[in-house]
Amino acid sequence: MSTEKISGQTIEFRKNDLLPLLFGAHNAHLHYLEDRLGIDIADRGNRLTLSGDAGAIKTAEHILNRLWNKIEQNHEVGTAEIDAELRFLEDKEKPKTQEQKDKAMFKDDIVIKTKKKTIVARSPNQALYMRSILDHEMVFGLGPAGTGKTYLAVAVGVSMYLEGKVERLIFARPAVEAGERLGFLPGDMKDKVDPYLRPIYDALHDMMPYDFMVKKIEDGDIEIAPLAFMRGRTLSNAFVILDEAQNTT
């Protein structure tokens, strides 16, 4: 990074009503950028004055403009988005291995819009995963719990359904862990398997109103069922997710 110092680099933003979203509560986002990049940021009205290392100033200006664009598109921003932007820039500057080249291909945000929220990737791997789902007929997602594999796949599926690119959403999941049985559980088939399919219901509920989701399930446009009940089915023009596929053996 350059050792040249810059004093008084100014950025001006329009739409004063959006500035609190950019600056954060008590300028928390600006202070976070100062700490991460070792620069000083002074705000006056709708202008920011940046002082410090030339390379860091350039990085801060890029990040602030990226955050501003997201805010104008009604996206929420915070320190997590700042960290994500910094990671993208760091990956871009590192010597390019093949894996890094693959990640750099997807440095631009992939925006997934659903009825209740807009979803964007928070890491290069999430962006790569979402882009792969959009571009390929079949995708295998591997990773630790909590990394967004099911949630992001559901988000892409819901978005494609709302845009009319697919006619149905099919979510299948082994109803039990490998080696277990359902027979001792009370109730009918739905009562038995619903607890195991709850993560998919939760993801759907996060992306569409409850009444809308229930209607689509009743109409058959959205189907959530254990894998055993998918045998022999013809699933044309459908977006299909097989969750917890490691338990299918």
Write a concise synopsis of the structure shown.
By secondary structure, the chain is of the alpha/beta class. The chain has helices at residues 19-23, 28-37, 54-72, 79-93, 98-105, 124-135, 149-162, 189-205, 210-219; strands spanning 5-12, 40-44, 47-53, 111-113, 118-120, 168-173, 222-226, 238-242.
Structure description:
This protein folds into two domains: 5-93, Ribosomal Protein S8, Chain: A, domain 1 (2-Layer Sandwich), CATH 3.30.1370.10; 98-247, Rossmann fold, CATH 3.40.50. The chain contains nine helices and eight strands. Helix 3 packs across helix 4 (79-93). It starts with a strand and ends in a 7-residue tail after the last strand. It has 249 residues and is of the alpha/beta class. It is elongated and about 70 Å long. The chain has helices at 19-23, 28-37, 54-72, 79-93, 98-105, 124-135, 149-162, 189-205, 210-219, and strands at 5-12, 40-44, 47-53, 111-113, 118-120, 168-173, 222-226, 238-242.
